[in-house]
Amino acid sequence: MLTSLPNLLTYARILMVPGLVGAFYLEGDAANWTALVLFVLAAITDYFDGYFARAWHQVSALGRMLDPIADKLLVSAALFMLVAKGTIGWDSVLAAIVILSREILVSGLREFLASVRVSVPVSQLAKWKTAIQMIAIGFLLAGPAGDKLVPYVTQTGTALLWIAALLTLYTGYDYLNAGLRHVIQEDESAAGKTGPASNG
């Protein structure tokens, strides 16, 4: 299953990350448009690798591991470069930090829950958050080049980024709350097994 189509699409998405970063070093509007095209292509592979994995019953452990890693690499690289370039101004850096912090938190939580064989399903609101987040980044990648074609592209992207950040706080709390219940249960279970034996 290492070379199944879903896995190949995931590999392709990971390989696009260096290209996305490199696009920011191009001159003029080419930087924006190249970065946007790569980001859109990566988002398309994200949709189709999951679709084909389910449709063709090619879900693999490797795919389950690499898919969220590829997503987080893509989003993190895009946000870091947008901040470095100044498209995301200092007044909106907090929104980017919230989104990145949530990704790290959820990754750690899922790793723990996987170790105790617990799965936390993705909520519909979390899916909407992801969609808004990806659209926001797309608008911001178009940035000043997009503003030349359609007014307020950058401002729209910034507004959507804040909406995604607010949804991130809400959905992140849901994940944390659900995860902590399992963490507490695991600690109580471990304490019960190692506690003093009854004298009765």
TrEMBL record:
This enzyme's EC code(s): 2.7.8.5
Keywords: Lipid biosynthesis, Lipid metabolism, Membrane, Phospholipid biosynthesis, Phospholipid metabolism, Transferase, Transmembrane, Transmembrane helix
Bilayer topology: Multi-pass membrane protein
Coiled coil: none
Bilayer-spanning residue ranges: 6-26, 33-53, 73-100, 152-173
Enzyme class label: transferase
Listed GO CC annotations: membrane
GO terms classed as biological process: glycerophospholipid biosynthetic process
Recorded GO MF terms: CDP-diacylglycerol-glycerol-3-phosphate 3-phosphatidyltransferase activity
Gene3D superfamilies: 1.20.120.1760
Pathway: Phospholipid metabolism; phosphatidylglycerol biosynthesis; phosphatidylglycerol from CDP-diacylglycerol: step 1/2; Lipid metabolism
Cellular localization per UniProt: Membrane
Chemical reaction(s) catalysed: a CDP-1,2-diacyl-sn-glycerol + sn-glycerol 3-phosphate = a 1,2-diacyl-sn-glycero-3-phospho-(1'-sn-glycero-3'-phosphate) + CMP + H(+)
PANTHER family xref list: CDP-DIACYLGLYCEROL--GLYCEROL-3-PHOSPHATE 3-PHOSPHATIDYLTRANSFERASE 1, CHLOROPLASTIC, CDP-DIACYLGLYCEROL--GLYCEROL-3-PHOSPHATE 3-PHOSPHATIDYLTRANSFERASE-RELATED
Family indicated by similarity: Belongs to the CDP-alcohol phosphatidyltransferase class-I family.
NCBIfam families, per the entry: pgsA
Protein known as: CDP-diacylglycerol--glycerol-3-phosphate 3-phosphatidyltransferase
